[in-house]
Model the fold of this input.
Amino acid sequence: MKRRSIFLAAIGIVFAAPAFAEADLEAGAKVFKKCAACHAVGAKAKNKVGPTLNGVVGAAWGKVEGYKYSGGKDGTLLQMAEAEERVWDIPSLDAYLLKPKDVIPKGKMAFAGLKKEEDRANVIAYLASFDEAGEETDPAPVLEAAAGEGS
Ligand code: HEC
Done:
């Protein structure tokens, strides 16, 4: 029962549009152009202004090696992640991408946010299509596992 509702929640959020996973990924790749000034994905991704985003869907906050996250004071990414276990599940990613400062008030992601729910869902699906090593993977089970309840 619980598994089923989690599964439906993931599908509902991500595939609400009457489009197929592939179309969503294509749309997500387009949306990702807005992130690409600061973030990279893929096998050759390197940290830029922001950390690489390989495997970020369902991952703990602030875990990319060699990247210096905001930290040291209340409301920064590392501080929040130390205070409580934080995972980038779909609800928290969705909220962060809508308005980064609402989720991490003193964070250093200087991005206005994506107003359209569809853009957020598509870019999250796109991110879910890269595993930790930056190899392409089927996003459906990744999204299902990350359906979560927010952190
Ligand atoms: C102007 C640069 C910039 C843009 C544009 C930007 N980000 Fe970021 N992002 C950052 C920075 C800097 C951080 C680190 C935040 C911190 O340490 O507080 C970050 C952190 C993140 C994290 C947390 C990663 C982790 O390892 O915990 C995610 C997820 C993320 N960004 C997704 C996105 C997505 C998706 C987009 C596009 C829709 C985007 N960002 C656009 C700069 C940017």
Summary: The CA atoms of residues 37 and 49 lie 8 Å apart. The two ends are 22 Å apart (CA to CA). Residues 34-35, 37-39, 49-51, 53, 56, 61-64, 69-70, 77, 88, 97, 104, 107-111, 114, 123 surround heme C (CB under 6 Å).
